[in-house]
Amino acid sequence: MVLKHPRHHRHAARDMEINPVFAREPVHVPRYALPHGEMGPDTAYQIVRDELMLDGNARLNLATFVSTWAEPQALRLMAECAEKNMIDKDEYPQTAELETRCVHMLARLWNAPDPHRAVGCSTTGSSEAAMLAGLALKRRWQHRRRAEGAPTDRPNLVMGINVQVCWEKFADYFEVEPRYVPMEGDRYRLDAQSAVALCDENTIGVVTVLGSTFDGSYEPVADIAAALDELQARTGIDVPVHVDGASGAMIAPFLDPGLSWDFRLPRVASVNTSGHKYGLVMPGVGWALWRDKDALPDDLVFHVNYLGGDMPTFALNFSRPGAQVVAQYYNFLRLGHEGYRRVQQTCRDVAVRLSTEISKLDAFELLTDGSETPVFAFRVREGIEAFTVYDVSAALRERGWLVPAYTFPRNRTDLAVLRIVVRNGFSHDLADLLLEDLRRILPRLAGQDRPYRGEDDAGAFAHGVETKCPRTPGPHE
């Protein structure tokens, strides 16, 4: 997000007068310039704390996928490790060791053929992890093309229009043509036939999404991989698959163990996930894993020696705290496989029950029900003209609920929906309270003479489902 200079805040006062403690004189504090002198720490704390009361309640934020609850022990560990720089692996070797253990645990969880040969790293989140995976795809393609004496100036990446906006950023920043498969009718995600149709000798990979940010659904990774196998057999074009498992890669292993989407599929070269989503860690940590060293070109990796061993590093960021990595290891140790299964099953149970109850309301129609990732989308039924999804979102916000409303992307921009993300800490009791508020506002909304809210009122309240920037379609679109 680009932060505006204060002069663009037309109605914002530049200074403020405060009286944070009864016994103290009012203090004059500039808002957008450094104060001339010091102030007491309690005063500074009170100023900041008072302003932050205007933020939304994170626990009631049903827009974000990011964890908003953690055990006190995890928070204590994070506080104790806040000053440790994750990049300084030689200075903090045990923190680096915990990172390595997490990578090996994930490699086993995602069925790497040889977990000891799988390589991976922590990141600031799934967006950085996705960009690292995209860079590896591009570099592998470049190496192969150079070895064949072929040009390397027109790489492309195939993906559904429903991908998270980080993939658009990757394509823009690293000069890769994005080939988006648009939504059609009731198909809201990438399918095998559409993906293969856009692939050619310049395709560096196909991105599949396990847990779409638009509706929570899984894309058919196995079907797409099989179609790419057939493409290679027919044409010789070898296109690897990356799985963006920002959410689903920490759901499917525990709740859908029979689903083939991970390294069990030989065509899957890499997987990313967000540790601070269904990995249950506070922001921000993500993970990127490659099935083996061949999938991650060594010329992208920097090698650091610590305790006489080799620690490969691959990152876009440099300094960042080790606290979140330590918290991830704590969660793995604390919960184990059964603990994660129980937590994720509870989230799915809450999502399915909540979506079922919402579907019983005459005003709404489900698109998904939360039976894959604990995320579901629903819309206002056709024929209802008094209000829109934006009216519903605004009315729920009056009670503190943050429920995003947005339109779907290209070819289905006519479809406006609400989406609810169920995370650890969103209980059946909170779901009942949300239902009560939803039932309470509907008669008022139904009594309106027309809708009062539209897409312009939604702002940037979309959390990963921003519309991709328009561009001139390529020859394969």
Describe this structure in words.
The chain is of the alpha/beta class and 477 residues long. It has three domains: 6-53, no CATH class; 74-332, Type I PLP-dependent aspartate aminotransferase-like (Major domain) (Aspartate Aminotransferase, domain 2, 3-Layer(aba) Sandwich), CATH 3.40.640; 347-458, Aspartate Aminotransferase, domain 1, CATH 3.90.1150.160. 34% of the residues lie in helices and 16% in strands. The protein contains eleven helices and 15 strands. The strands form four sheets. The chain has a seven-stranded mixed β-sheet with strand order 3-9-8-7-6-4-5, with helices on both faces. A four-stranded antiparallel β-sheet has the order 12-13-15-14. The protein has a two-stranded antiparallel ribbon with strand order 1-2. The longest helix is centred in the C-terminal third of the chain and has 37 residues, at 323-359. The radius of gyration is 24 Å and the shape is globular. Residues 470-477 have low confidence and may be disordered.
